[in-house]
UniProtKB/TrEMBL annotation:
Protein name: Uncharacterized protein
Pfam families (UniProt xref): Avidin_like (PF26421)
Domain of life: Archaea
Region (Disordered): 94-114
Species: Halogeometricum limi
Length: 114
């Protein structure tokens, strides 16, 4: 287990599968309490989203719910591997699946200035 904490960090989409809504303009604002994480996210194709799950310092397991720019709701699940980059920023390589509609994929999030 590593010492990585997501508390207070802002991450943004770097890569995503075509069936995903998160992009470079989507910002995730994280809070962490022990092994529980939560984030509010918005930007790009996402009007508002919320993520909630667990994080053991290396891997997260989360559920998310969101409203897109067209006003449609969606829910899903993802499991991601969290690493620290050489410059101290955090990177997440995430495998996700929609639960409310068809689609699966992989995405990458990286820490940005808040």
């Amino acid at each position: 287990m590593t010492d990585i904490s997501l508390d207070g960090r802002t991450l943004a989409g770097v890569e995503n599968a075509a069936s995903g809504d998160v992009g470079r303009d989507t910002r995730f604002e994280f809070e962490q309490d022990g092994d529980r994480i939560r984030a509010r996210y918005a930007g790009g194709d996402v009007a508002e989203g919320h993520l909630l799950g667990t994080f053991d310092g290396d891997r997260w397991d989360v559920r998310y719910v969101q409203v897109d720019a067209a006003g449609e709701t969606a829910t899903g699940h993802s499991v991601g591997v969290v690493t620290e980059l050489p410059d101290g920023r955090v990177r997440v390589e995430d495998d996700w699946e929609w639960e409310s509609k068809p689609g699966t994929g992989s995405s990458v999030l990286e820490e940005v200035e808040s």
